[in-house]
Structures are given as structure tokens and as C-alpha cells.
Design brief:
Elements: E1 6-14, E2 20-28, E3 37-46, H1 48-54, E4 71-79, E5 89-93, E6 108-111, E7 116-118, H2 125-147, E8 157-159, H3 165-176, E9 181-185, H4 191-196, E10 199-204, E11 223-226, H5 230-238, E12 245-248, H6 262-267, E13 270-273, H7 281-292, E14 304-307, H8 313-320, E15 327-331
Bound molecules: NADP nicotinamide-adenine-dinucleotide phosphate.
């Protein structure tokens, strides 16, 4: 790595007053960690976790200055690993990228070789980022649900936070895999779009706020992918049909929820944890191949908008307040 060279990055700094600022800076290559693979980033996706990191959330990023960005796709420029060579098209999502390792909101990333996935055939660098951690998380959720017996014939699957990144990719993926999807969203103006990408019905997310504390409710869905957490997750579990699986992916409403054991011991409901960040490489490669093959989401062109590196800071608060729709992709090449 030529340390005389510089590159452009979004840098978040912590001031002496403990306030955080973010700006696009021209930084030395020495700002990057000493990884095994140096990648020229072509696209990066904006995620909820990036907005937390950019706002100084110490549970995500312990020390600053820092560059967020948990998702990047690009071309290998230097490699000390025999698994990759200059010119290879690759994807890096999750692990520690963008958390405590300088992330994808920059022209370069430098990472360990075992974080790097070769771009599967049948997928472009842009498509890989429209899918990104969000689509990978949805794929991991569906994979775990099917391992636990979920089948399209069991009935409809609910997706909460459906207009968000993980939610919209989950709607799309489930539809493509043969499931009938109910999309729960707070944005009724996006119901037509949710139907276009695969939802059969849409419901207002307020319907998922429990109205009473009955331990079980009338069965309304055969399974669910939940990105919201809190009382929404409690409600989803109480109204899940017999032997259905509910994949818990997120916490945009709350990380805490209250529930009795009745959905589990009377209805056999499975509550499944989804941790995309630490997925072992073999399963990671398998799911990326599925996402470029028979699980490839349709309508990817309708699911994102492209922005520049300079525009990223303007989206961080919108993400935290749940106002964004689909995927926002920064174009960096
Ligand atoms: N487990 C994993 O491996 C993994 C991987 C990626 C992300 N995540 C987590 O998944 C969650 C979603 O991430 P994302 O990137 O998809 O975020 P996002 O694009 O910001 O989408 C979140 C969506 O949740 C809904 N929402 C927001 N605030 C809400 C509230 N107070 N109550 C109910 N619904 C609310 C909104 O959708 P509607 O307006 O349509 O309701 C919003 O668009 C986050 O918690 C993130 O940390 C987990």
C-alpha cells in the first residue's frame, strides 16, 4: 500500500465536547488498517447500523475518527492472499467492516481475506450492493425458517418494517421463493410499491401494536421476518400459526419485548435469531450464490436510489427516523 497516496472518505470525528461531526476528507492510505486485501470500492450501501455509527453510537463503533459503511463491492487492487488477485470483483459485507474497521463510505477498504466473497456470476457490483447486508440478512432469515420446516403451503408470511432495507428485500425474496407476503409498513403511500416488489397485502404497522395482554391471539400468519423488535415482535409471535417460524432481525422499535411461553409450548412457534455479521464463510458464499441464482430478487432497479459520497451524511438522520425507503447506494468509482 502506497502511503504517499491519498483517498476520499467520509470521516466521523469525536470532538473534545463529545459531539460528533462528519465530513468528506482526503486522507492518507495510512488511515486504513493493514488488511490482506486492498479493494477499490465501487459501491457502498447505507444501512441502519451505519447511521448509528455515524452518530457516535459506542455500541457499534468504539473509537473515532472512523469511516462507517458495513457493505462494499469493488475491485481488488492489491492482495497478500492467494485466494484473490488484482482485478477480481468482490463483495464485503458485515463482520467488523464499518464498525471498528474503516468501512465502505470511502474509495478504499483494506480487510482480512476471509471477509471477502468473490462476486457471484450473474450479479453486478451494483446489484450486490442493492442486495447487500439487507438482502443477505433476509436470505439468512429465510434459510433458517426453511431449515425449521417453513413452507409456502403453510400460509402467509408477515414482514415488518417492510419499506426499509431488510424489509423490502425480505418481501422481494419471499415472493420469489413462492411465499405469499403480508407487508407491514408505516408508509401507506408506499403500498403500491410494496405490492410491485412482491407483497400480496399491506397492513398498517400500528395493527401490530398489542391492544391487550392475551398470551395468544387469532392466528394471522404462518411465519414472519421481523426487523422491528419490541412489542411488534411480541404481537407477531402471539398471532403466529402452528409450527411457524419467526425470524428476529432488528430492533428499530425496541430491543426488548415481553412474551409468555404460550406461543412456544402451545403452538410450537419457533423464534429464530438472525446474525448476519458472523455468518461463517461457507454459508455466506452459499447464500450469495443463492442470491445470484434462484433466490435473485426481481425489480432490483426499482429498489434503490444512487447517491454520491458527498450526499451520504444527509441521509443518516432520515435512516434513524425510519423515513427512507428501499436501498440507498453510494456510487464511488
Ligand atoms: N440481524 C442482522 O444480521 C441484521 C442485519 C441488517 C440489519 N439489521 C437490523 O434490522 C433493522 C432494520 O435495518 P434496515 O437497514 O432495514 O433499516 P431501515 O432501512 O432504516 O428500515 C427500517 C424500517 O423499520 C420501520 N420502522 C422504523 N422505525 C420504526 C418504529 N419506531 N416502529 C416500527 N417500525 C419502524 C420503517 O419501515 P415502515 O415505515 O415500512 O414500517 C423503516 O423503514 C435494524 O434494527 C438493523 O440494525 C440486522
Amino acid at each position: 500500500m502506497d502511503s504517499a497516496k491519498t483517498y476520499k472518505a467520509l470521516v466521523v470525528r469525536e470532538g473534545d465536547d463529545k459531539r460528533f461531526s462528519k465530513a468528506i476528507e482526503e486522507v492518507s492510505m495510512d488511515f486504513l488498517p493493514k488488511g490482506e486485501v486492498l479493494i477499490r470500492v465501487h459501491y457502498a450501501a447505507l444501512n441502519y447500523k451505519d447511521a448509528l455509527s455515524a452518530s457516535g453510537h459506542k455500541g457499534i463503533t468504539k473509537s473515532y475518527p472512523h469511516t462507517p459503511g458495513v457493505d462494499a463491492s469493488g475491485i481488488v487492487e492489491e492482495s497478500q492472499s492467494s485466494d484473490f488477485k488484482e482485478g477480481d470483483k468482490v463483495i464485503v459485507t458485515s463482520y467488523d467492516l464499518g464498525m471498528n474497521t474503516k468501512g465502505g463510505f470511502a474509495e478504499y477498504i483494506s480487510v482480512p481475506a476471509h471477509w471477502v466473497v468473490p462476486l457471484p456470476s450473474g450479479m453486478s457490483l451494483l446489484e450486490a450492493m442493492v442486495i447487500g447486508t439487507a438482502g443477505f440478512t433476509a436470505a439468512l432469515a429465510l434459510h433458517k425458517m426453511e431449515l425449521n420446516g417453513q413452507k409456502p403451503s403453510m400460509g402467509e408470511i408477515l414482514v415488518s418494517g417492510a419499506s426499509g432495507g431488510v424489509g423490502s428485500l425480505a418481501v422481494n425474496l419471499l415472493h420469489g421463493a413462492g411465499y405469499t407476503v403480508i407487508a407491514s409498513s408505516g408508509k401507506s403511500e408506499y403500498y403500491p410499491w410494496l405490492k410491485k416488489i412482491g407483497a400480496k397485502h399491506c397492513i398498517n404497522r400500528e395493527e401490530l401494536i398489542p391492544q391487550d395482554d392475551r398470551p395468544l391471539m387469532r392466528s394471522r400468519w404462518a411465519g414472519a421476518i421481523d426487523t422491528v423488535g419490541g412489542e411488534t415482535l411480541s404481537s407477531i409471535l402471539r398471532a403466529c400459526g402452528r409450527n411457524g417460524s419467526v425470524a428476529s432481525c432488528g430492533l428499530v422499535r425496541s430491543p426488548f419485548f415481553e412474551i409468555s411461553v404460550y406461543p412456544f409450548i402451545l403452538n410450537g412457534v419457533n423464534l429464530l435469531g438472525v446474525d448476519s455479521a458472523e455468518t461463517p464463510l461457507s454459508l455466506r458464499r452459499h447464500l450469495w450464490n443463492e442470491l445470484s441464482g434462484h433466490w435473485k430478487p426481481g425489480n432490483l432497479e426499482d429498489m434503490h436510489k444512487e447517491v454520491s459520497l458527498e450526499e451520504i451524511p444527509g441521509y443518516m438522520n432520515d435512516i434513524l427516523s425510519g423515513e427512507t425507503v428501499g436501498r440507498i447506494i453510494a456510487s464511488l468509482a
